[in-house]
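User: Can you predict the 3D structure for this chain?
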Amino acid sequence: MELWTLVCLGLLPQVVLSINTRLTEVLHWTLVDYVFGSPQERQAALDSGRFVPQNNLALGVERWGDKLFITVPRFKSGVWSTLNYIKLDDKLADIKNSTSPPLIPYPNLEANTLGGEAKAWPPKLTSVVRVRADACDRLWVMDSAVIENNKQLGPPKLMVYDLKSDSLLFSYSLKDKEYNEKSLFPSITVDVTSANCDHAHVYLPDVYNYNLVVYSLQTNETHLVTHNYFHFDPLSGDFSSGKFHWQWQDGIFNLALSPVDREGYRLVYFHALASTMEFVVASKHLQNSSMMSSDSAAQDFSAFKVLGNRGMGGQSSAEFLDEETGVLFFTLVTKNAVGCWNSFKGDEYEDKSIGIIAQDEETMVFPNDLKVDKKGNLWVISSPLPEFFFGNLNPENVNFRVFMSPVRLAIKGTVCDEM
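Assistant: Here is the predicted structure, written as structure tokens:
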């Protein structure tokens, strides 16, 4: 039975909270915990410092089949496992006792345990920020290979898993010229269709070097794309959340894809985190390694277009476009909200055509990631990143929440509605 069916039938427990009647809270945690082999194993992990609950920040979300993936980057020491999941079947079967389920390491704990030979197979997962499940039932993981105190344990690498067998298909390490000590790859976007699984392209934004790394599965090669639109906006670098106020210089952060056109390409929407602007470029330009080469005189900078402005307080981390409705969803991190814009309606990208589908100053503090799954459900995770970095998580508070809604319910009554 689908989760939303339970919502409609009123079978969810009272703890579930509706946000603006559009998004429903389905999971929450005060502090992240994991599935351990025994209470003794958990206590040993606590005693050794391998597991420090307050240092685990649930950040990324993705849904495939009966798995809801939750990433926990190793921003601090004491992260037990960086790539994890929750079995949704188990949750639905015992939902009254599972609103705060422990995370299960994916594909297993060994893959998430640091140490061992650097060139051993399969390679270890070091620190994962966000992941993407594609139309070919593969999970694409961008492992930054950076742990606490910005310690680089190796080159950043792509790792791709077969979701049906939970086995690692292949791993690809970035070239030296494609990363440095400043690099951070906060998101991963996979451009592929189920009819052409071998022709995937992956877009990897480097937030501090203001570059985009493009990987081709067909050639097993990468190339760099640069553009001024990848940089931060100094007028949008001020952030605030609760009692915290700070400045960031984060550049290109996330990308979203339109449906495929007649030529087999898409529009690629993108933005910097420290910006309120949205931009767009055709995927054929990003995929053309000769045209986009940083030392090529033929580089077509005019292919990049300004889409519009989200307005004051419009800084966004994640975005995702639902191909069926054409709605572009995006987080609004300083507004503690989720916004939307309908790409199919022909409206300009501006304040009057941008809708707010959910906003809450208490339960949606710093929405970090969002995805639309194959069944047309929008998933959002919120986590108090400013409190995590500039203070300490309060173990008395609910710190992490996952929300869900069918896309059409999420946009109902907003300017993003299809009608």
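Residues 1-19, 91-97 have pLDDT under 50 and may be disordered. The longest helix spans residues 39-48.
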